[in-house]
Amino acid sequence: MSEPLLSKTQGSDPWKARIDRVFARALVLPLFLALALLSWLLLDTLYRSFSVQVVRSDVGLSQTFPLGTAWQEALRAALLQEGYTEEEAEAMLKDPKELRALLNQNRVELMWNTHEGPLRYVVTGSYDERVLDLPLLQGLRRWEELKAGLGEGERLVLNPWLDQTFLTRFPSRNPLIAGIGVAVAGTVWVLTLALLIAIPVGVGTAILLEEYLREGRLNRILEVNLRNLAGVPSIVYGLLGLAFFVREMGLGPTVLAAALTLALLGIPVITVTAREALRAVPESQRQAAFALGATRRQVVFRVVLPAALPGVVTGVILSAARLIGEAAPLLLVGAAAYVPFYPSGPLSEYTVIPVQIYLWVSQPQPEFARVAAAGILVMLLVLSGLYLAALYLRNRFRREW
Q: Transmembrane residues, as ranges (predicted)?
């Protein structure tokens, strides 16, 4: 009788309950603080991606076009304003090379508000100059004042820097028409090649360690080294890539050198996550397959690997999300700050989204900070998509053993 009564008294100890509550609050408070800081940074970045501008067009157009106007018509009007004839303008719009050059030098965008009304198309040329650039709230407060003070050739716009063509426009030294298209293409090239190299090596290493070398000195040595490599700073991989891939192998500052460097960075992460997924498969599945007469290879590739595939894919996606945000190693292996063309192959020059953002932030013009904010939003959207895909795959294919 006394023993149950004693345990009941100990279970209702007020000091123990108070310590548990304090400990729980101490864990929750940093989490809420981190979420609040992340939300503030996201909102601040979103706020900086909008601005109110006064732009002067000494050569091109100062008027805007109503919603529903074809962008070709707006571009034709800009060409006529610059002194081209109707025939010359029509020929330039029909020639693919000329049209591509025009779109690289001009931005045809739907602005949220202009001095001539809301939701109107605006043509911004490479020679247009900024007269005034104000933060969103300040510009909206002074909107009527700025509208009344417009001079000849000037226009007032509410400019969303992350617009419908920001992902396809080429980089430019003029922030008004700068885009992130080349950096997106370079990121796709580098990340795709890096994953094509890292996935077979990482998953193969995990299978070797978990299914063939479960016990032994070699297994312990490889496991310790892999976990150490997973925690090595990315800048060290950049130094390795610069010394070996760029200089020793003679690849130079190319897409392939960057992909090999990022592959080295991703292999330890993929290996560790793949091993955890393989380890989660019950031993009874292996023994049942062996009992039916399957060989080791058949057990691994027809029983264990398909069962562990959701966890392996989740680890690959999380590794890709880490690699897509790396800038330090790519700066060391020669990612160019300004590349005005799309990569044409593994041996071409390139730039990636983090490096492009770094270039914009380092520019002296304040408008480039707004372009960088739009680029940051693009990268956050990509990362959010990858993390949501990993979460969906984990929940969709989760198995309870």
A: 22-43, 176-209, 229-246, 258-278, 299-324, 368-393
